[in-house]
Amino acid sequence: MSASQIETDPVRAGFDPERLKRLDRHFATYVADGKLPGWQVLIARRGHIAHLSGHGHRDVATAAPIEDDTIFRIYSMTKPITSVAAMMLYEEGAFELTDPVSTLIPSFADQRVYTGGPARAAQTRPATEPVRIWHLLTHTAGLTYGFNRLHPVDELYRRTGYDYGTPDQDLAAVCDDYAAMPLLFEPGSSWNYGVSTDVLGRVIEVASGMGLDEFFRTRIFEPLGMTDTAFAVAPQDKDRLASLYLADAAGKATVPRNSPPDAAPRALSGGGGLVSTAYDYHRFTGMLLGGGALDGVRLLSDRTLRYMSRNHLPGGAHLDEIANGSFSEVANAGKGFGLGFAVVEDPVASHVVSTPGELSWGGMASTTFWVDPAEDLSVQFFTQLIPSGTHPIRSQLHQLVYQALVD
Fold first, then answer.
1. Average pLDDT taken over every residue of the chain
2. Considering only 164-168, 303-307, 328-332, which range has the smallest mean pLDDT?
3. Strand 253-257 and strand 275-276: pairing?
4. What CA–CA distance (Å, rounded) separates 69 from 291?
5. Contact in structure between 58 and 241 (CB atoms under 8 Å)
6. What is the pLDDT of residues 240-294, one digit of tens each?
7. Do residues 159 and 65 share a domain?
8. Quick count: other Cβ atoms within 10 Å of Cβ 20?
9. Which of 79, 191, 334, 384 is a Cys-bridge partner for 346, taking CB atoms 3.0 to 4.6 Å apart?
10. Strand, helix or coil for residue 336
11. CA 291/CA 191 separation, integer angstroms
12. Nearest residue to 287 via CA among 209, 342, 223
């Protein structure tokens, strides 16, 4: 179903249509200035799409426009889906959040923690705390990304072949490689953006006895009607895929990276491997706003989802206080981290209009979403520009959405 077929009157949803035009005009300048190839925004309230717009091209060279059914690489917007999948298994008693990951992935026993030295001669000591499943959900495991380029352990990941991708091996072997590298810190003591959710994907495979793609398809995508979300684009849908662009030194989207995911890789990335559409992801965020259920389909208990939506960082810290280095374009003051997404606790501290209890995350190609339970609101923005911090899209989107909400 096309999202435009179910679009509702924005006035009934509490929006001023003239003020919504400010949003479209503002981001149209991003395309006119060459900062973005094209974009799509979907705003829903009280279960109905109140605003759907797009501008520019899904492929600049062919002038193919952004359309309702354009497919986007969502990268780290995969992480909340993987986290929901894990918590579905938690609700079935497959594991406890405090279980060591080694009970399901034995290579995670006997972890070591980095203590000093360059990557080529890293010094380590035995970890005193095992990596637990809740550490994976909260990015407090001490795992990292090779592309972070902030720490000697990041370099160790790159030396092992883990930069922006993975070697040609299955997820089990990939996770064994991650386990063989030292942790940045004692599990549970700090926060670092890394491969934790990829390891969580392997936990899901072992606990369920299913491949991650099969679990997603049968337990989440088909029940929610997410027909275009997958680890690869079907051959008949390749023309719908938005091309990927790198920003040049001036922040312009001028360097195409057109390698469509024709087939799922051997290592299915629960941290960043999915493609999706605005309508499909709207179905997922609708489930989050529905307390774990949508249109009679329940994936999670509302109690479980409320628990996921609390700040689980050690000592109740906020991301700006505990995170290692810079990992996103937005200010993270006033934000905690729950089980799979950021959680706004103090909007004033962030200097961006938002609401306590808002859940959010984004992707490497400048995509973003948030859900605001207090306003019964969800917002999604899709484009295809790497890196995500090139322009202040996420903070400006907040400004422009909330100024148009007038009821």
1. 93
2. 328-332
3. unpaired
4. 27
5. yes
6. 999 999 999 999 998 776 666 667 788 999 999 999 999 999 999 999 999 999 9
7. no
8. 21
9. 334
10. strand
11. 27
12. 223
